[in-house]
UniProtKB/TrEMBL annotation:
Swiss-Prot/TrEMBL cofactor(s): FAD
Gene3D superfamilies named in the record: FAD/NAD(P)-binding domain, Succinate dehydrogenase/fumarate reductase flavoprotein, catalytic domain
Originating organism: Adlercreutzia caecimuris
Pfam families: FAD_binding_2 (PF00890)
Signal peptide as annotated in the record: 1-26
Keyword terms of this UniProt record: FAD, Flavoprotein, Oxidoreductase, Signal
The protein's name in its UniProt record: FAD-binding protein
Keyword Flavoprotein on entry: yes
Entry keyword annotation includes Iron: no
Gene Ontology MF annotations: steroid dehydrogenase activity, acting on the CH-CH group of donors
C-alpha cells in the first residue's frame, strides 16, 4: 500500500479536473437560464420526457444473435459483469453505443478489504448501513445495500488482482477522518490504484482482460428498445441501431448498465427540478442520457419516486452567471466552462449575491448547493486569503476534496491549483478586500454587506466559535492576509443515481413490485439505494456498488453465489 505521490502528478490531476470537453459548448457570457419545470406541473408535461416506445418492424432487423447474458453498457458495472462472466465461462455479449469503454472513476468503495484490515480500519457494517439509510431518509432498500456491504471486499480484491497484474499499480487506501463532531460517520472504504488517473485505468484493464480471453465488445450499438412481452413480466433481448441497420440480440438474461440521465435536460427538468436551480457546470458523461432507463420503463419497470442527483460544489462561474440551463430541450447545457474546480469543496466563507453568509460551509458537497438554490441566482461566492494553504491543511477535507489538500501539503500553491480559473479571470485575486469586492461584482448595499460579513467572519475565527451557523472551530479561517481570492460557484452535476427499482439480486421490478423475468440493472441506471442526496462521506460508494452489483449478477447466473 502506498501513500506517496509526486507533486507533479497531483497538479496534473488538478488540471484535468478543471477542464471539461463541454467547455467549448457553454460560452462565458452571463445569460439567463431557462426556468425548470415545476414539480407540481400536470402529469402530461412531467412525463413527456419518456415518449412512446419505438416500433421496429421484423423486416427491418438485419441480423440476430442469441446469448445467455446480454450486457448493455461498457462502463463500471457492465465491464465488471463481463470480466466476471469471462472468469466463470458464461456465454455473454457486451454492447455499447460509444466507440470506446466509458471513463473510469478511480474511487472504489469497498468494506473491510485486506487493506483496511491491515491498516487497522475495520468498518462497522451495521453503522455504515444505518448511515447510508439516514442520508436517504430511510428510502434505502437495505437488502440491496447489503450486497455492497457483504461482497464489495471480495469484488475489490478481485479487481485489484487484475489491475496490479496489468499495470503494476498499488493500492492507496484513504483513511477517513473522524467526523463525529460534524454529525456524520465516515467509514474507511475508499481504495484507489496509484499513481491514479495515469496509464491504463480500471475500465481499460477490464476491456483488455475480456478481449484477451477472446470476447468482443460490440461498440456503436445504440440501444433502441428491449424485447419484452408487453405485460411487464418478461424481457427476452434487445434491439440496437448500428451502422449496418437494426440488430436484435436474444438473451435469457439482459443486464442494463447504461448509466444515469444527467445528460438529458428534459428528464432532469421533469424529475429533478432542484438541479437547474443550483447547478452551473457539466461534469457528467454526455452519453448518460437515460436511454436505458427509458427502455425498461417501456417494458413495464418501476423507477425510484424520489430523485437523487450527485452534485459537487465545484461549478466555478464568472460574475453574474446564474445557475440553470442555457438553451432548450436536448441542446440545453449548464453555463460553466470549468466542469470542476476542486477548491470549491474547501469550507471557506461563502456569501450570496447580497454579500451575506447563509449557511454552514462545512458539510457534504451538495449541501451548500441546495442552500444556494434558495439564494439569488442559485450561486455562492467563496472567499479566502493568502493563508489558505495552512487553512486547507487544517481543514483536512474528506473524499476527492483531497485533490486540493494533498498537493497543498506537498508544496503546491493556490495559483498553481487554481490556474484554470485564475488565468481566464473566473477566480478573482486582489491586494485588498475592497478591490476584491468590486471584482466579484458587489456594489452599493451588497458591497457594504460583504465587507461587514468579512469583519464578522474574522470575529468568529478569533472567538473560535461560529455563533451564526455552527461550523466547527478548526474549519473557520481568517480573511486578513493579502492576496485575497474569491470565486462564484454553483453545483457541478456528475450523475444521477435514482433509477430502476431492483431487488437484492438486481432484478428489475415492475410497477406492481414483481420481478420482470430476465431483466437486471446495475450501477447508475439502477435504484433502490439513494434518495435526495448522495452519501458523500462514504467515499467511493457509487463506483464500488456499481462494480459489486455487476459482478454479483454474473456470479449469480453462473451459480457461483
Amino acid at each position: 500500500m502506498t501513500k506517496d505521490f509526486s507533486r507533479r502528478s497531483f497538479l496534473g490531476l488538478g488540471a484535468a479536473a478543471t477542464l471539461g470537453s463541454v467547455a467549448a459548448l457553454a460560452g462565458c457570457t452571463p445569460q439567463t437560464p431557462s426556468a425548470a419545470l415545476s414539480d407540481t406541473g400536470d402529469s402530461e408535461s412531467n412525463s413527456s420526457w419518456l415518449g412512446a416506445e419505438p416500433t421496429v418492424e421484423e423486416s427491418e432487423i438485419t441480423s440476430a444473435q442469441d446469448t445467455d447474458l446480454l450486457i448493455i453498457g461498457a462502463g463500471c458495472a457492465g465491464l465488471a459483469a463481463a470480466a466476471t462472466a469471462t472468469d466463470l465461462g458464461l456465454d455473454f455479449i457486451v454492447c455499447d453505443k460509444n466507440t470506446a469503454v466509458q471513463d473510469t472513476r478511480e474511487y472504489f468503495g469497498a468494506v473491510n478489504t485486506k487493506y483496511t484490515k491491515e491498516a487497522g480500519q475495520e468498518v462497522d457494517k451495521i453503522r455504515t448501513m444505518n448511515e447510508i439509510a439516514r442520508y436517504s431518509n430511510g428510502r434505502t432498500n437495505r437488502s440491496v445495500l447489503k450486497v455492497w456491504l457483504d461482497e464489495s471486499a471480495e469484488c475489490f480484491e478481485w479487481v485489484d488482482d487484475l489491475v496490479q497484474k496489468a499495470t503494476g499499480k498499488t493500492v492507496y487506501l484513504e483513511i477517513a477522518p473522524d467526523l463525529t463532531d460534524h454529525g456524520y460517520f465516515a467509514p474507511t472504504v475508499n481504495h484507489m490504484h496509484a499513481p491514479y488517473y495515469t496509464g491504463d485505468l480500471r475500465n481499460n484493464v477490464y476491456q483488455q482482460y475480456i478481449e484477451g480471453a477472446g470476447h468482443t465488445i460490440y461498440f456503436e450499438h445504440e440501444l433502441v428498445k428491449l424485447v419484452h412481452d408487453g405485460e411487464g413480466t418478461k424481457v427476452t433481448g434487445a434491439i440496437f441501431k448500428t451502422k449496418d441497420g437494426y440488430v436484435q440480440i436474444n438473451a435469457a438474461n439482459v443486464l442494463l448498465a447504461t448509466g444515469g440521465y444527467a445528460a438529458n435536460p428534459t428528464m432532469i427538468e421533469a424529475l429533478q427540478p432542484n438541479v437547474p436551480r443550483c447547478v452551473t457546470a457539466n461534469s457528467y458523461s454526455m452519453m448518460c442520457d437515460g436511454s436505458g432507463i427509458k427502455t425498461a420503463l417501456w417494458a413495464g419497470a418501476a423507477m425510484d419516486e424520489v430523485p437523487c442527483p450527485m452534485i459537487f460544489n465545484r461549478g466555478a462561474v464568472d460574475v453574474g452567471v446564474d445557475a440553470g440551463y442555457i438553451g432548450e430541450g436536448e441542446d440545453a447545457i449548464f453555463p460553466g466552462t470549468i466542469f470542476q474546480l476542486n477548491m470549491g469543496s474547501q469550507p471557506f466563507m461563502a456569501v450570496n449575491r447580497n454579500g451575506v453568509r447563509f449557511t454552514n460551509e462545512s458539510l457534504p458537497y451538495d449541501n451548500i448547493c441546495n442552500a444556494s438554490a434558495m439564494q439569488p441566482g442559485g450561486v455562492f461566492c467563496q472567499v479566502f486569503d493568502g493563508n489558505a494553504p495552512a487553512d486547507i491543511d487544517r481543514f483536512a477535507q474528506a473524499g476527492c476534496a483531497r485533490l486540493t489538500t494533498d498537493p497543498i501539503r506537498q508544496g503546491a500553491t493556490i495559483d498553481e491549483l487554481c490556474a484554470t480559473a485564475l488565468e481566464p479571470g473566473v477566480m478573482k485575486k486582489a491586494d485588498t478586500i475592497e478591490e476584491l469586492a468590486d471584482m466579484l461584482g458587489f456594489a452599493g448595499e451588497a458591497k457594504q454587506n460583504f465587507l461587514a460579513q468579512v469583519d464578522r467572519y474574522n470575529e468568529l475565527f478569533d472567538a473560535q466559535a461560529d455563533e451564526d451557523f455552527g461550523k466547527e472551530a478548526y474549519r473557520l479561517s481568517a480573511i486578513r492576509q493579502a492576496p485575497f481570492y474569491g470565486c462564484w460557484y454553483g453545483g457541478s452535476l456528475l450523475t444521477t443515481i435514482d433509477g430502476l427499482t431492483i431487488n437484492e439480486e438486481m432484478q428489475v421490478l415492475n410497477t406492481e413490485g414483481a420481478v420482470i423475468e430476465g431483466l437486471y440493472a446495475a450501477g447508475d441506471c439502477s435504484g433502490s439505494l439513494f434518495a435526495g442526496t448522495y452519501p458523500e462521506y462514504v467515499v467511493g460508494l457509487a463506483c464500488g456498488r456499481s462494480s459489486t452489483q455487476g459482478r454479483h449478477i454474473a456470479r449469480r447466473l453462473a451459480g457461483d453465489l
